[in-house]
Amino acid sequence: MDFQPDITVEAKPTHELTLYCPLRIVREYDESDCEFDEEVLDEQEEIPSRYAVDCAREINAFIRDYSEPEEEHRGLMVYFDRNPAVSEKVFSAIPSVKEINGELMGVFECQITEELTGNELEDLREYLSGQCSDGFFEGMEQHPIKTADFGEIYVSFWNDSDDWSLQTAEEMGLEQTEDLSEEPQIGMTM
User: Which residue, of 40, 52, 92, 133, is most buried by count of CB atoms within 10 Å of its CB?
Assistant: First the structure.
């Protein structure tokens, strides 16, 4: 008869690690805003993120609807398979947008059970940057989001400019909450 090891379920308190990135928000150029003889050089009009702050609720609703059912609790960490230490420490990475210092920014709220080492943080950052450029958000940015203020907009968590980055609250000069979550995440050990 095969031996079945005892399984212990242990609740691990979590705290939040938040990563932030700039957004690129565009809409189709509205020709009705042009003078008759004005030439339209670009088909898309960029909306500065400070003007799109009032669209946060609509964008977040779209992100929730665009997400797959298996992403509900763990967000984009459900697909992470690179580094077992990071998988053990980072329970979830939930994407959204929030107003930060008057600008609408992309946000990843990560529930972590332990502090990440520098290398683990870089591994997580690299993974989420890939989701911004080629993964989850590459597909999402191709779908219009209906807004009251700007009509249909397209939101990208990525751009190829030199000033794009995915930063922690500390790196941005923001206060990061370190409070323990009231809802511990369940971990299984054998």
Answer: 52
Distances (CA, A) of 119 to 102, 142, 146, 164, 174: 31, 32, 39, 20, 22
Instruction: State the Cα–Cα distance between residues 143 and 183, nearest whole angstrom.
Output: 34
Specify the pLDDT at position 12: 76
Q: Domain residues of the chain, as ranges? A: 8-28+43-169
Give the pLDDT confidence score for residue 165 in this predicted structure.
95
Query: 102: closest CA among 44, 163, 52?
Result: 52
Its pTM stands at 0.81
Residue 60 CB neighbours (<10 A): 16
Distance CA 36, CA 42 (A): 16
Is the torsion defined by CA of 106, 111, 115, 121 positive or negative? negative
In the predicted model, residues of the chain with pLDDT beneath 70 are 1-4, 7-9, 30-42, 176-190
Per-residue tokens: 111:
């529930």
Alpha helices in 55-105 (DSSP H): 56-66, 84-89
**CA-CA-CA-CA torsion for 107, 108, 110, 116, nearest 10 degrees?**
-100
